[in-house]
Amino acid sequence: MLFTQTYLSCCLLVVVSVVNITPVYSNPQCPVHEFFNTAALKCTAEPTCQNPSPEPECGCVEDNCQQRCECNPGYIRDVYGKCIPISQCPCTECGENEVFNTCASSCDMEPTCYNRTPEVDSCCVPETIQRCECAPGYIRGPDGTCICIANCPCECGENEVFNTCASSCNIEPTCDNQTPVLDPCCVPETIQRCECAPGYVRDPSGKCICISSCPCCDPLTEVLCCTPCCEKTCQHPDGFNCRSHCNVDECVVGCVCKEHYTRDEETGKCVAVCYHKLMKHIHKPVVHHHHHLPIHVL
């Protein structure tokens, strides 16, 4: 009934029999999944995946009918103009601060807080794709959501990476302390911060430098490609001074005391003899053994 009313209102100025409103599905001029509509509304575009309920064109007057190929019932035009089942339309509902781009390039990487001008791979073969992208003025944040560009975290320095899930209890390695010990009394909180990239540590000025570039501050130490998880110290001679999050399968370059030397946790230096052992030896009570000489009775 609605179709008949629309048709009649469209074709009042045209003498056409109402009997002919039935769509002609077998018209050879139309592609697959389309029919030839002899009474189409010229002011209203066909529904598409991107606009399933199009509004009439503003200012347009339906003064005559239009003949055109339209999608069969249950079909809709995709971004390429083909009629596809409505169920095959791609999802066009994007997240917050996102827009749906029907003509994106598969070679174009989206800008992020840490790569605001991504380079296009010269070997990439571009293809037209549909995807959700950040709206103008927004950019992909660390968690993948689109945030205001002004809300991007601080940019990290040279040889640094931004850690979105760092622990407030983990102390960054430095040249002087390449295997910091986790404070057992610290209550961990998840924080975001810039940290030295793998293979780099902070030097005395706070910059991240290659571990091998650390100044030689203790001649009694040597650099090992794989430092032990638990270093023997004066305070922990059995090797219970373990660095936090130690992975036995992961090699960590660092300085260790040379052979026959032990690290003193109080000073951080390598010593030949541990001070507390020396003091213990010095203050060790001396036991005097009195030897009674035999008494000869004359």
UniProtKB/TrEMBL annotation:
- TM spans, by residue? none
Residue ranges annotated as coiled coil are none
Gene Ontology MF terms in the entry: peptidase inhibitor activity
Q: Which domain of life is it from?
A: Eukaryota
Q: Which CDD domains match?
A: TIL (cd19941)
Segment forming the signal sequence: 1-26
Q: Tell me which Gene3D superfamilies the record gives.
A: Laminin (2.10.25.10)
Q: Which UniProt keywords apply?
A: Disulfide bond, Protease inhibitor, Signal
Family matches, as Pfam families:
TIL
Occurrences of domain TIL (ranges): 30-89, 156-214
SUPFAM superfamilies, per this entry?
Answer: Serine protease inhibitors (SSF57567)
Q: What is this protein called?
A: TIL domain-containing protein
Originating species? Psylliodes chrysocephalus
